[in-house]
From TrEMBL:
The lineage of its organism: Bacteria, Pseudomonadati, Bacteroidota, Flavobacteriia, Flavobacteriales. This is Uncharacterized protein.
Length: 210
């Protein structure tokens, strides 16, 4: 008995504790709404919509060659982990004229994973600026109309993020150039919002049965 107890403490308990704390972030609270309503994509591309989807939204700009690292980070750390969910998608806004480059990028990403839920929306530069401004964040686009930050948009077009982030206070977006930030913050926040919708779906199904 004593040996079994020692083995449990040494091997089983650490695993149980890890699973408890790793999943705990999903089980409590909701991901704060930072912007109540952001514009949908209808005017820029009628084939892509944010409404009724959980979207990771980004802006690749005109220099896609220098954004490949960030795109690969996002694909490996976030998309490959959550892309299996039916309502999950990645949408990248890109200035018109970069269609060939984005298709090449999508092809390269496709060598590492399925990319059927990666979408690219093309718009004139002034529309890209206007759309980004409509997000209402505290961030700016670079001179090439890109940002390393991506944003979580929920099914009701609300921008979700953190209002008590230990580093930034209010955190609107996640820096795709930082693997640590994707691993330590964005993974948790995407888990939370997916858990919200799973719980809401279970509740709706339960209410229908009553």
């Amino acid at each position: 008995m004593k040996k079994k107890a020692v083995l449990f403490i040494l091997f089983v308990f650490p695993v149980v504790a890890y699973l408890f704390f790793a999943s705990g972030v999903n089980n409590f609270g909701k991901l704060p709404i930072l912007v109540e309503k952001v514009p949908d994509m209808n005017e820029m591309d009628p084939n892509v919509r944010l409404k009724d989807k959980i979207t990771v939204l980004g802006f690749l700009g005109n220099d896609l060659e220098n954004k490949k690292g960030s795109a690969f980070n996002l694909n490996q750390k976030i998309y490959k982990r959550f892309g299996e969910f039916n309502d999950f998608q990645v949408v990248m806004v890109v200035p018109k004229g970069n269609e060939t480059e984005t298709m090449e990028l999508k092809k390269e990403l496709g060598e590492l994973s399925e990319v059927d839920k990666w979408y690219f929306v093309y718009a004139p530069e002034d529309e890209v600026r206007s759309y980004f401004k409509g997000l209402g964040t505290n961030l700016d686009l670079g001179s090439d109309l890109s940002t390393p930050y991506v944003f979580i948009i929920d099914k009701d077009l609300a921008l979700r993020g953190r209002n008590d982030d230990e580093d930034e206070g209010v955190k609107y977006g996640f820096d795709t150039s930082s693997v640590a930030e994707l691993n330590n913050k964005m993974v948790d926040d995407v888990k939370i919002i997916l858990a919200e919708y799973r719980l809401a779906l279970k509740k709706n199904n339960a209410d229908r049965i009553k």
